[in-house]
Structure formats: structure tokens, C-alpha cells
Amino acid sequence: MRIVFLGPPGAGKGTQAQRLKDYLGIAHLSTGEMMRDAEEEGTPLGREAARYMRAGELVPDEVVVGVVADRLAQKDCARGCLFDGFPRTVPQAETLDQMLSGRNMPLDLVLALDVAEERDFSVADYHARNRALATLCGFACTCARCSAEQPAALRDIDLLSYFLDSNAASRP
């Protein structure tokens, strides 16, 4: 089974993909992780992607698709995979379709995760603050609710409530 998760940063693509990956027993393909892994392995595509990322530029579609193609060829993808935030462009989607068709690996499902905008704090804000706290603390644990990293000191409280309460005075 091959599934694509689409959505804005912080919408929960990685969290949901991780849970579904474990349930289905298939690979989780996160573009960011694949790029970092390719760089660490010293592949030509990994080195090229790293040059763009270090310069703060978008990695060209050809490079991203090449890294994905290399990853799809690995043994753990034979049973299926979850694409976390890929494809991001129409050319990437068209190339992924051709790539999967050529390998007789049909795409089974595309899920678009959306974040409601009417909340004071969006899920994206929640995860961003959660990561910031974990970074400041330096000691992180995994949230039982959303699998996000958070400081151990805040492990047993609801971080969204924490931020709503602690930022109440600063809100208009």
C-alpha cells in the first residue's frame, strides 16, 4: 500500500504517518529525512541537496525526485510506504505517478490534512512551541498524545493549555 500525506507544516503529517506506518508495517518516507540521510551517506544527490539546503534555497524537483526514487528502490519499500509531504509540486506529482507506474506500485490513497484557522493557537503553533521548549530544555520526551518531542518537565501537562494560560496576559 502506498499513501501520500499532504498538508501545511505542523498539520500532523509526520505524526499520523508514524502511527499508520506502525499499524500497516510499511516504510515512512519523509522528504526531509531522506535528504539528510542521502547527505550523510555522501550520495551525489545528497551532496547536491545539501548545497541548496545550506544556502536556504529550495531543492530542485529533479534532485528531490531522485532522492525519493533512490529511497523507493530500498527493500523496506517493497510492501508499501507513506509519503510524508511529498509530492509538493505538480511536476513532482507527475514524476511520482510515472515512477510508481513504472515499478507496478500503484498509489492507493492521498490524504490532505488541514488545520482549522479559527483557533487561538493552531496545531502548527502547538508543535512549533513544543519543539522550541524541547530545544531550550535540552532534555526531551515524547508526548503520549501527539508523539511530538517535549521537555520532560512538561511531560504530564497539556502543552496547549500551558501556552494558552501562560500567554493570556499578552493577548489582546
Summed up:
With 172 residues, this protein is of the alpha/beta class. The chain has seven helices and six strands; from the N terminus they run E-H-E-H-H-H-E-H-E-H-E-E-H. It has two domains: 111 residues, P-loop containing nucleotide triphosphate hydrolases (Rossmann fold), CATH 3.40.50; 48 residues, no CATH class.
Feature tags:
172 residues, alpha/beta, Rossmann fold, 2 domains, two-stranded antiparallel ribbon, 7 helices, 6 strands, 13% strand, disordered C terminus
Please give the CATH architecture of the largest domain. Answer: 3-Layer(aba) Sandwich
Helix content: 40-55%
From the N-terminal CA to the C-terminal CA, the straight-line distance is: 48 Å
For this structure, the CATH topology of the largest domain is: Rossmann fold
> Could you tell me the mean pLDDT?
75
Structural Rg: 18 Å
General description of the model:
It is a single chain. The protein is of the alpha/beta class. 48% of the residues lie in helices and 13% in strands. The protein has seven helices and six strands. The strands form two sheets. Strands 2-3-1-4 form a four-stranded parallel sheet, with helices on both faces. A hairpin with a 6-residue loop joins strand 5 (140-142) and strand 6. Helix 2 crosses helix 4 (61-72) and helix 3 (44-54) crosses helix 4 (61-72).
